Amino acid sequence: ISPDTSMVHIASLLGIPTIGIYTADNWNKNRWLPHGVPHRTVQSNDRESLVGVRMKNMFAEIDALWKEIT
Fold first, then answer.
1. Cβ 50 vs Cβ 44: under 8 Å
2. Do 4 and 25 contact (CB within 8 A), yes or no?
3. What pLDDT score does 23 carry?
4. Cβ–Cβ under 8 Å, residues 22 and 3
5. Dist. CA 9–CA 55, nearest whole Å
6. Count of alpha carbons within 13 Å of 16, Cβ hemisphere only?
7. Quick one: three-class SS letters along the chain?
8. What's the pLDDT band for 2 if we cut at 50, 70, 90?
9. Is the pLDDT of residue 3 over 90?
10. Would you say 32 and 12 are in contact if contact means Cβ atoms under 8 Å apart?
11. Is 67 within 8 Å of 57 (Cβ atoms)?
């Protein structure tokens, strides 16, 4: 789970299922998605920061990814 796209891509390279955290800017999210591994994304409600990330959304995506990989 990381808001740092370099860590998201390293995890993807190593085959680690990943949750990326992004701002509300869809262009940025779509450009830096993980590739080749099961993944989920969580977005902030704010285009400029991660302050608007909702923890209930984070936990929902963690649960969904866990169900997919187990």
1. yes
2. no
3. 94
4. yes
5. 23
6. 12
7. CECCHHHHHHHHHCCCCEEEEECCCHHHHHHCCCCCCCEEEEECCCCCCCCCCCHHHHHHHHHHHHHHHC
8. confident
9. no
10. no
11. no
